[in-house]
Design goal:
Length: 203
């Protein structure tokens, strides 16, 4: 199956999930919405559990791609500005996407698929599905992934300030996650990040 068809199936599953709980999402309906046979869907994902893992993996990848865009920014930007953009992206992504919110917080509602985060045996011949059947990121994994990407984007080669920068990056991520759970008041997450980050390592 071409990647575009796989994406169409995942889009159809995501649309179905927006309308009903995952337990009520039927493989036959997902296949029909994507314009393929149910057998094609099973060939691609193996099972409904495989589809769930692939959907979670795609949303995780989409969130991390947004992190990369926020860190890159439209121009040079100061580290503080780019970390602020990353924190704002985290909060908005979690607000707009229930799967991203569940992955970042570890709080999975009954409406959502909640595949185990550990790897599962995979006999799939589809590379993308073998990856989806591997380990899925936990909230702690996301903190480390975003922190490390931020350090690499903002610092490049290691320097004496690398440890301070790593701490600032992790603080920004953890502040954003706290705002996902308990939305901030006036000023939002941006004001919190600007107020709390040390100026020497994040300005």
């Amino acid at each position: 199956m071409v990647p575009a068809a796989r994406e169409s199936l995942l889009d159809a599953a995501c649309t179905a999930l927006a309308c009903r709980p995952w337990s009520a999402v039927r493989m036959v309906d997902v296949a029909a919405a994507a314009g393929v046979s149910r057998q094609t869907l099973y060939n691609e994902f193996g099972s409904k559990e495989g589809l769930a893992r692939a959907l979670v993996r795609r949303e995780a990848d989409g969130y991390l791609a947004g992190v990369e865009r926020a860190l890159a920014g439209d121009g040079p930007g100061t580290p503080r500005e780019r970390l602020t953009a990353t924190a704002e992206w985290t909060v908005s992504a979690a607000r707009d996407n229930a799967l991203v919110r569940a992955m970042l917080t570890g709080c999975w509602s009954e409406r959502l698929p909640s595949p185990p985060l550990t790897a599962v045996p995979s006999a799939s011949v589809v590379p993308a599905q073998r990856r989806a059947d591997g380990p899925l990121p936990s909230p702690g994994d996301f903190v480390a992934l975003v922190r490390d990407r931020a350090v690499a984007a903002l610092n490049g080669a290691p320097s004496p300030d690398s440890l301070d920068l790593a701490r600032s990056c992790e603080l920004a991520v953890r502040l954003a996650l706290s705002c996902v759970v308990a939305p901030p008041g006036e000023g939002g997450v941006a004001e919190l990040v600007r107020t709390v980050l040390p100026r020497r390592s994040a300005s």
